[in-house]
Design a protein that fits this description.
Length: about 325
Amino acid sequence: MSDWRFDLVPAPLPGTKTHGLVDWRDRVVTGWDFPYVAIHGAHPGPAVLVIAGVHGSEYVSIDAAVRLGATLDPKELHGQVLCLPLLNPAAFWERTPYVSPIDNLNPNRAFPGKPHGSFTERLAHHLTERAIRKADALMDLHGGDIPEALVAFTIYEETGDAALDARSRAMAEAFGLPAMLAQPRGNSPIAGTTYATAARLGVPAIIAEDGGAGIYDAKAADGMLAGAENVLRLLGVLPGGARAVPKPHRYGRFVWVRSRDAGFFRAAVQVGDEVAAGATLGTINDFYGRTLETVTAQAAGRVLFLVVSAAIKASGLICGIGAD
């Protein structure tokens, strides 16, 4: 049987489960509690990292990760699972969307991190080197932050390595959400994500998104828990094999639409709508009743997430369109 792989936390004995708080061993990454659950299976198998709460107000994902760690039985487990359900506790307690209030950085733009950077950059560095790099697979659970509504979807990076991409795609499909983004390397609207960092280390990885608007949705949390468990069955960590789930609709591009001007946003579409290229998504308005800008779709596709906050800054994010 292989030894415990994740040196981010103390090693549990085979066939046991432990929990506690992560010691980052870093003088800067202090002052907040980062819970973990470590499950060392009684049988040999892969090492899987499950994280959530990278954005602290995405409650569905946090609850699913908490419940996963609580319910996994080390006696039936093949391999090992490290669950980190709250990787942005400052944002959780302060109800801050997107960023860490400690240094105002978005953790899912900071990977692989910097060993001598700010709080968030150092946290990303430790997580990359002491957990992601050690894993055989990564699941990063998310769900529309306080200003967002979304269609449930998974996303993975297509690296050009056929075997690695096939493993990531199988994980994304097994999660059982209705939409899937296969993001080509070098063609992402953002950089510094967990899943892309993992893929570039040769680790199959997905992000799963469900929930939104800063609301705890118990039904969505149930679905996210079921999806994570099904991926663990696919990987052979849980017995029985993956259950059959409907194939998601595959999108090959993720087109993010931003405003030009700052102002009050009046949406003309809803999340989940199919839009044509050039279609009106909404207007940016001033506080004197004038329209400053009509925001239009830059590609045809489905609105997979939509900012539901009316307050939009200049170059503010409006929506993400899944394009075929």
